[in-house]
Fold tRNA dimethylallyltransferase.
Amino acid sequence: MRQERPVINLMGPTASGKTALACELYEQGGFELISVDSALVYKDMNIGTAKPSAEEQAQYPHHLIDLITPLEVYSAAEFVQDAVQLIDQIHAKGKTPILVGGTMLYFKALLEGLSDGLPSADQSIRQEILKQAEEHGWEQVYAELQQVDAHAAAKFCVADKQRIIRALEVYRITGRPITQLQSEQSKTLPYHYNFHNYALMPERLELHGRIEQRLNHMWQAGFLDEVKYLIRKYDLSPDTPSMRAVGYRQVINFLLKSDTMCNNIKIMEDQSLFATRQLAKRQFTWLRSLREKHKFVTFLSIKQAQDHLRNCYR
């Protein structure tokens, strides 16, 4: 029987301190870090993603950072494929992988598997859908989804653009609703790992304070200028998938759709803060759902997590 080897999953909402915790574990030796963050895969998106600096990455190397340009798309299926390959390579070195991040969809895909047989992304079809949305509006695109896959549409709202694109893409490729295909297909887990799942879930008020502090640091570090640079370099629009990341969405809309007066800057910053807090709320919901199905150790403070993990992985 194949021996199950350990994989540490360190999850938590944005700004909860999970990356610092993972780096502290890394310093003990015998570990490698794998990022589980759908925004850190993008090159040149540094400030708004709170990406570790070049110096920090030299001290604490992270896999799965800076993989693609902001014009490309990276799916949960690609994450699982890349993560499994890295986990096996790290185990082969006699080390333990630490997967750290806040993209709960990626963690869910790794823990529970993905449906087999769904078609890969088709960039030409995605561009067709984006063009349709640009010409007729997302309400019309959403209405089309309601026609071809009412079950999928019921799970989304008009603002869930990436999910709408994927559902319509699958329908246009296969002629069948994505929900029907998912219900028919088995989920496979082609690996044997012993997952050690940890959730860092600080008190809401503490987390909100940390989020506000981090955003203030981003504005001071030049987040606005970073998005200006990205728009020039890649000719990005608000509908580009990478620009749907929290913070980036608010900034690019501000830069391209407003008069950029000082009073509007404050409104945009407040919108970014609200959106980031909403992201944290969704991450809490994802974590609660995952804890219902999988064994977890949950920490209410960073110190509690530090004390526990130091004892477990000395």
